[in-house]
Amino acid sequence: MFKKLFRKIKKFPSWVYIPLVIMMRLIKLLLMRTEVRDPNNYLNTVHGAVTVTWHNRLMFFPLMFPRRLRKRTAAVISPSRDGQYITDLIAAFGVRGLRGSSNKRAMQVQREAIQAVRDGFYVSFTPDGPRGPKYHMHKGPIHLASRGGVPLIPISVNYSNYWQIRSWDNFQIPKPFAKITLVLGNRLDIPPDLSSEELDEYCREAEAALMAITVDPLPAPPPREKAIKK
Predict the structure, then answer these.
(1) Domain that residue 42 falls in
(2) Residue 222 is assigned to a structural domain of this protein
(3) Has residue 137 been placed in a domain?
(4) Which pTM does this prediction carry?
(5) Which candidate among 19, 24, 127, 212 keeps its CA 20 to 30 Å from the CA of 143?
(6) Burial letters for 181-219: b for 16+ Cβ neighbours within 10 Å, e otherwise?
(7) Is the pLDDT score of 137 beyond 60?
(8) What is the pLDDT of the chain when averaged over all its residues?
(9) Which CATH number characterizes residue 27's domain?
(10) Which residues of 32-66 are buried (b: 16+ CB within 10 A; e: fewer)?
(11) Is 230 inside a domain boundary?
């Protein structure tokens, strides 16, 4: 009953997300250790870029950046109902949402994203979302970096200890007193006017660059067995 009622709500009031944001800030401050590794100083020198982060690393992703950078970040998010919840949540962190996918509002979100990177924003993708496969790079961020004339920067959020959910991406939740490490890898400069083969090649290169900074020490949980009807 409650699940059906919840699914009928397309948008919650903005104030609903404020307690959650406050709680996450307190958890990060009181129960977590954090580190930012940016050896190339991209956070202070790059203005306008496409960033890619795996879907299962998003829980503390916004809070690992100072507010001045969150205000210059826009995330590409599905136009679905669940995407609306995520859009409203990241807005509470100061991050702008760009609604669209390859199946819906594709041209509109591409125009908005190109304008955003040219205005000096970081446009953030989860390149294996929203449905996977896990750790598989889709072409959207490569295409945007090429069209927008900006670099692509791989970013990973690694936890020293965590729980993982039995979902397609094994979403990670850091345990109390775990260390959260934000890592920025080497930038990729994507040339314009890519052929289909070149797009695939850069997609594989970007996937390898993101995997190179991804730490995933725990094995994925086994798939949940279906009950056998007698």
Answers:
(1) 12-212
(2) no
(3) yes
(4) 0.88
(5) 212
(6) bbbbbebbebeeebeeeeeeebbeebbebbeebbebeee
(7) yes
(8) 89
(9) 3.40.1130.10
(10) beeeeeeeeebbeebebbbbbbbbbbbbbbbbbbe
(11) no
